[in-house]
Amino acid sequence: MSTATSKSLKEKANQVMGVNLKDAKLAKSYMAVAFIALLLGGILGLLQGFERAGLIQLPYWFNYYQVLTAHGLLLVVVLTAFFTIGYFYAGLSHCLGGLLPKVRKMAWIGFWMKIVGLVIAIIPVLLNKASVMYTFYPPLAAAPSFYIGLALIVLGIWVCAFGAFINVASWRKVNKGKHLPIFAFFATAVFILLFFGSIGVTIEVLILIAWSFGWIPTVNVMVSRTLFWAFGHTLVNIWYLTAVSAWYVVVPKIIGGRRFSDALTRIVIILLVIMNIPGGFHHQIVDPGMSQALKFLHVFMSLSISFPSLMTAFAMFYVFERTGRKLGGKGLFGWLRKLPWGDVRFLAPMIAMIAFIPAGAGGIAQTTNQLNQVVHNTMWVVGHFHLTVGTSVILTFFGISYWLIPHISNRVLTPRMNKVGVIQTIIWTIGMLFMSGSMHAVGLLGSPRRTSYSTYGDNATALGWDPYLIFVAVGGTFLIIGVLIQVFAVFHMMFFAPKGVTEFPIADPEVPVEKTPMWTERWGLWIVIMLVVISMGYVIPLVELIVNAPPGSPPFKTW
Amino acid sequence: MKQARFGLLLFLFLLIPPVAHLLESIMIIHMHMQMPLLVIAGFLMAPFFQKRFPRLFENWNHAGIPGILLVTIVWLYWMIPRTMDDALTVQSVEAFKFFSLPFLVGVPLRDSWKKIGLTVKKIIFIGFTILFFGMGILYIKVPVQLCNNYLLIEQITLGWGFVTMAICIVIYLWYFVFMDHSKYE
Question: Boundaries of each Cytochrome oxidase subunit I profile domain copy (chain A) (predicted)?
Answer without folding.
Answer: 30-491
